[in-house]
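Work Package 4 report. The design task specified in the project plan requires that, given a folded chain encoded as structure tokens, an amino acid be chosen for each position. We show below one input record used in the internal validation round.
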């Protein structure tokens, strides 16, 4: 059992145990899947931000992600000087092993190198306390990008993947639910100004969050 002295091994073991418990808790009883409007009904305009491009996720990608619904759009800011990408992957259930793929794994696998990785609090309307989300800055050649993301389910915002698994078990036992969503906002870095891109991304999170609250199941 010496491998458990390794921090990574302990975390991996915990995740596997949580998945096993969640599967048992969910599979033993029917789930209560809450109704939700398709993500295609998500607003094209809100608070001056306007839809620029709506790119459906390819069928092959959906089959890999195993999502029930996805949204992949680009919005421009009120001044028309900058834009932000919005990606939502919704899972009605995690009963059969479906779960969000962390951008921390997907982006490096696509050739992006990490510049910084931290968690930041953001004040948003409709929430009593600041939400804590991930701020992930990456680089691919000369191109840099800021990714802000979190997991959202049952009126809960979670940044940490392990915490998301813990809440999965709790919700499966208490509410017979395992639905969740990965919400990701991206902002391109221009003129090597990372802070400006971070500010643009955070501003978009603040205006889009109330719309996400209306869209996702409570």
């Amino acid at each position: 059992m010496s491998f458990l002295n390794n921090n990574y091994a302990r975390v991996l073991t915990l995740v596997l145990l949580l998945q096993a418990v969640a599967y048992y808790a969910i599979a033993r009883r029917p789930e209560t899947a809450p109704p939700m409007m398709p993500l295609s009904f998500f607003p094209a305009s809100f608070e001056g931000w306007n839809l620029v491009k709506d790119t459906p996720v390819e069928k092959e990608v959906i089959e890999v992600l195993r999502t029930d619904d996805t949204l992949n759009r680009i919005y421009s800011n009120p001044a028309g000087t900058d834009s932000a990408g919005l990606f939502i992957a919704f899972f009605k259930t995690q009963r059969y092993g479906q779960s969000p793929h962390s951008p921390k794994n997907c982006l490096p696998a696509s050739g992006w190198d990490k510049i910084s990785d931290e968690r930041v609090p953001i004040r948003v309307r409709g929430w009593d306390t600041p939400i804590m989300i991930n701020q992930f800055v990456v680089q691919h050649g000369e191109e840099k990008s800021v990714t802000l993301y979190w997991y959202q389910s049952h009126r809960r915002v979670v940044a940490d993947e392990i915490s998301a698994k813990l809440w999965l078990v709790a919700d499966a036992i208490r509410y017979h639910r395992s639905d969740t969503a990965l919400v990701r906002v991206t902002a391109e870095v221009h003129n090597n100004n990372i802070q400006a891109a971070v500010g643009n991304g955070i501003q978009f999170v603040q205006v889009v969050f109330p719309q996400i609250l209306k869209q996702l199941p409570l």
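Helices lie at 7-27, 59-65, 103-109, 161-175, 194-215. Validation will be extended to a larger panel in the next phase.
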